[in-house]
Amino acid sequence: TIKTERRKMDKSRAHFREAIKHMPLGVSSNFRYWGDDNTVFVKNGKGARLWDIDGNEYIDYRLGYGPAILGHCNDIVDAAAREAQSVGTVYALGTEKEVTVAKLIKEMMPAAELVRFSNSGTEAVMAALRLARGYTGKDNYVTFEGSYHGLFDASMWTADPEDMKDQTKQPKVIPYGEGIPQLVRQLFWQVPYNDAQRLEEVLKKNHDTIAAVLIEPILGNCCGIPSKPEFIKAVRELCTKYGVLMIVDEVKTGFRVAKGGAQELYGIEADIFTVAKAVANGYPISAIGGKEEILRKYGKGVAHGGTYTAQAMSLAAAEATLTILKDTDALKNIASYGQAMQDGMGKVLTKRGIPHSFTGHQSMSGLFFSAEAPTTYRNWKLSDYTFYDTMAGILIDMGIMCEPDSREPWFISSAHDQKCLEETLGKFEEAVDLTLNE
Ligand code: PMP
After folding, report:
1. Pocket of ligand 1 contains residue 411 by CB under 6 Å
2. What does this protein need as cofactor (predicted)?
3. Which residue range(s) make up the domain with 235?
4. What was the ipTM of the complex prediction?
5. 150 C-alpha vs ligand 1 centroid, how far in Å?
6. Of 84, 133, 154, 303, which residue is the least packed, with the fewest Cβ within 10 Å?
7. Is residue 380 part of a domain?
8. What is the pLDDT of residues 282-317, one digit of tens each?
9. Cα–Cα distance measured from residue 233 to residue 317, given in angstroms and rounded to the nearest whole number
């Protein structure tokens, strides 16, 4: 539970009572509902901070689940978007800026021989999977336990946590909720993360029907579990060996963990990859990149489009954001901040003899209250996150906006500065002690 001893919530609560009359859960994503009394409504953000409608100030470590890589309301990005607005937004025709942004992506991500734009992460991954199917002429695909690739039916499956208590058992694959057709289940295999041997077994037997292996290089939807370098390299080799395309979903990691995303970090190249969140600092745009021969299938039989693809404001914001990320040390500084934050938190916890570990990348890291960080969805699900959940509720009340459960990593932007760091670590120490006394 999120505490509310230190901040006012009157306006958010009153607004919730109004919102629920008009919108299911009072919000536009189920994840934004934090309970009738705890759902926060934002007034505005600037840099690393945001303010809610009650006037509470927070240092934001959620950043809209990652997009605001340069901080909220970046002046340069917003000015570019405003300028684009003055010439109109959609024409159902091409514009010159698409090529400018495509070139920037190509420059930063070598696997991008060609680029196609979409609007969201979901749309990009959905399009990438169709492209892989169109190119290979095969229907099936492989995903990994604990991954999330968007809202579409093919992606909304997970491993049953009930089955995980017995680690020798293969957990049942279940849909994320109702309304997802069981028929889709016949189209994919779900393999434990960081388990190349199991992947090879599946590919060896079924490669004739498998179009693609769809992988998040860092599982960004269960705290930030990274691929082991030897694992992701093995995935690359196995895909090549068995004639299956490797789709690297860099929606969260792209333009965040390195200028060239996780592909640069791990030294691999995807056949097709997707980027979204950090591309335009919060303006909706995503891209599918990959090998020329594959991408040229658009135009040779594979359908893709959309009214809003390459919409002018998002494109202008993308140009501004990517130019900053490419030409400055923003990502290095983000990683240094992340490291300093981990070191500081680590010190506080070590001093109190609390076992802990950090997962993911410094720019999107998870905090664990066990000496060893989980390496699979199964370990993550079985880990004890009561301490984290209690502490996160206290931190939010103190003005440190982290994820209230350990599902999402802590995201850092280039606007997080020394002042944010000191404030965060001071409040973290206080929150840890309060949690110990709970
Ligand atoms: N892929 C990954 C790895 C993601 O983290 C997400 C969103 N969290 C998506 C795809 C879907 O992106 P969107 O929410 O923009 O549709």
Report:
1. no
2. pyridoxal 5'-phosphate
3. 76-327
4. 0.99
5. 5
6. 303
7. no
8. 999 999 999 999 999 999 999 999 999 999 999 999
9. 33
Predicted local confidence at residue 385, as pLDDT: 87
Q: Do the beta carbons of residue 312 and residue 287 sit within 8 Å?
A: no
**Do the domain assignments include residue 171?**
yes
Say if residue 115 is in the same domain as residue 22.
no
Q: Is 65 in the pocket of ligand 1 (CB under 6 A)?
A: yes
The closest of 69, 326, 224 to 61, measured between CA atoms, is 69
Scored b (16 or more CB within 10 A) or e, 407-431 reads bbbbbbbbbbeeebbeebbebbbeb
pLDDT one-digit tens code per residue, 222-268: 889 999 999 999 999 999 999 999 999 999 999 999 999 999 999 99
Q: Does 87 score more than 90 pLDDT? A: no
Judged against a pLDDT cut of 90, whether residue 157 lies above it is answered with: yes
Whether residues 116 and 255 fall in one domain: yes
Note whether residue 261 is domain-resident: yes
Instruction: Tell me, yes or no, whether 318 lies in a domain.
Output: yes
The rounded Å distance from CA 437 to ligand 1 centre is 37
Q: Are residues 36 and 168 in the same domain?
A: no
Same-domain status, 41 and 85: no
Is the pLDDT confidence value at 168 over 80? no
Over 80: is that where the pLDDT of 27 sits? yes
Q: Locate the ligand 1 atom nearest the alpha carbon of residue 221 and give its number.
A: 5
Please tell me if the CB atom of residue 124 comes closer than 6 angstroms to any atom of ligand 1: no
- How many structural domains compose the chain? 2
Sheet with 410-411, strands from edge to edge, namely 357-361, 364-368, 410-411
CA geometry: angle at 281 spanning 277 and 285, to 5°? 50
The position carrying tokens 């934090």 is: 34
- Tens-digit pLDDT profile for residues 103-139: 999 999 999 999 999 999 999 999 999 999 999 999 9
**Does 214 share its domain with 252?**
yes
Pick from 368, 366, 279, 341: nearest CA to 315:
279
121 CA to centre of ligand 1 in angstroms:
4
